[in-house]
From TrEMBL:
Record's keyword annotation contains Transferase: yes
Keywords: Kinase, Transferase
Molecular function terms, GO-annotated: glycerate kinase activity
Record-level GO BP terms: organic acid phosphorylation
Name listed for the protein in its UniProt record: Glycerate kinase
Length: 378
């Protein structure tokens, strides 16, 4: 085993370690057990928080652009250039981290800053833009973002509508004459793991706006505004975004782009894997070591570590998973390609100690998992 190549590729351990910090801890443990093992190290993400970090670890260059936050205040927003691709996270520009979740803010929050990030990427010469959609504070159907890119959304008096989802109800026309022409010449791909429609009982407002502060009245108002926005978009583009799966992701952000540009959507983990060349890394690996903060029922619904283990299994490669907290048993994990799973928390005397010293206990859990692996593969 000492001459083997190990692909170390965890997702973040939320609240304690970034994906790259977790990978460094795992690597230290691998080299204590197998000192001469070759290491390939990547950071995973499933298209939300951490997507930029994964692109940076894959050789990207970090940029920062000051944009308009969801409530109009300037915020610095990081993004990454990886070759001809710009990698953006909606949360960095229009995220819930920038606002207090109240009904008023849920109605007012705008994606204008995400549009400014797209414009910054265009100005930098990117020919492809990847957007991670998780963590938004907004429910404006992407209207703010396309406004930042030159689209005019006007009320009955031909004035710009108020920002935010609530403002959509006052819109009467869409003017595309000033839309940035570069949008028609480039590829825009949005990472998304939900299938919710734009509006209705399973739509953006009723399913996701509560976590952004919207009370029942605000959710009803936002849903009606999104339905009307879909009508306006259809009138100018011929695309009925109200019928499109995934259009309700991130407060309906995809709706404007799917109607007005050639943007597409892709499952988050698959998109990130392609971005950071996971298949190339797997081709060189003999073993995969992955993990995340919690391995639970959500993990097997398309989260990055399980998706990686499944790809590894298809290639005939074993996968080991380390979690901060492990809620799935081996019988559940085995069909997904994981041959050994270990919890870092079980090595700590208390949860509080595990949270205070995450790297130490992650290393211990990794060493324990590698010893288990040696026993079952003797």
């Amino acid at each position: 085993m000492t001459q083997k190549t190990v692909l170390i590729a965890p997702d973040k351990f939320k609240g304690t370690l970034t994906a790259l910090e977790a990978a460094a801890a795992m690597q230290a443990a691998v080299h204590r057990i197998w000192p001469t093992a070759s290491i390939i190290r990547l950071g995973l993400a499933d298209g939300g928080d951490g997507t930029c970090t994964a692109a940076l670890a894959a050789g990207g260059t970090e940029h920062s652009t000051t944009v308009t936050g969801p409530l109009g205040r300037p915020v610095p927003a990081a993004w990454v250039r990886l070759g001809e691709t710009a990698v953006l996270e909606m949360a960095n520009a229009s995220g819930l981290r920038h606002v207090e979740p109240t009904p008023e803010n849920a109605l007012r929050a705008s994606t204008f800053g995400t549009g400014e990030l797209i414009r910054a990427a265009l100005d930098d010469g990117a020919t492809r833009i990847v957007i991670g959609l998780g963590g938004s504070a907004t429910t404006d159907g992407g209207a703010g973002a396309v406004q930042a890119l030159g689209v005019k959304i006007l009320d009955a008096n031909h004035n710009p509508i108020p920002e935010g989802g609530a403002g959509l109800g006052t819109a009467r026309s869409i003017d595309l004459t000033g839309m940035d022409p570069r949008l028609s010449q480039m590829e825009i791909v949005m990472a998304c793991d939900v299938t919710n429609p734009l509006c209705g009982p399973n739509g953006a407002a009723h399913v996701y706006a509560a976590q952004k502060g919207a009370n029942p009245g605000a959710r009803i108002a936002l849903d009606a505004a999104l339905a009307y926005w879909a009508h306006l978009l259809r009138s100018i583009s011929g695309v009925d975004v109200s019928k499109l799966p995934r259009a309700g992701a991130a407060g309906g952000f995809p709706a404007a782009f799917m109607a007005l540009t050639n943007a597409t959507m892709q499952p988050g983990a698959d998109l990130v894997f392609d971005l950071i060349n996971v298949d190339e890394a797997l081709a060189a690996a003999d073993l995969v070591l992955t993990g995340e903060g919690s391995l639970d029922d959500q993990s097997i619904q398309g989260k990055a570590p399980i998706a990686l283990a499944q790809r590894a299994r298809t290639s005939g490669i074993d996968a080991i998973a380390i979690a901060g907290k492990l809620e799935l048993d081996q019988a559940t994990l085995a069909p997904h390609g994981i041959v050994v799973a270990e919890s870092a928390a079980q090595h700590a005397p208390s949860l509080q100690d595990a949270m205070r010293n995450p790297r130490h206990y992650l290393e211990k859990a990794t060493e324990s998992a590698l010893h288990q692996y040696e026993r079952i593969r003797q």
